[in-house]
Design a protein that fits this description.
This protein has about 70 residues and is α+β, with helices and mostly antiparallel strands. About 15% of the residues lie in helices and about 20% in strands.
Amino acid sequence: MAFQIADLLAYVSRMMTLEAGDVLLTGTPAGVGPLADGDRVEVEVTGVGVLANPVEAWREGLVSTQLP
């Protein structure tokens, strides 16, 4: 895993209140490979629609995706 569970819980709890019984899912399904510049990630929810985002290679000066 890229981040420890305690770090993920601390990060998420800064954004929202976690209640007893809440579930935080992490990980990647089997068979998923790394993303590359130019890829497109799509998530479809039946009856709702499709969310699509392009993947761009990291460039100096962009905001880091690492947890603070």
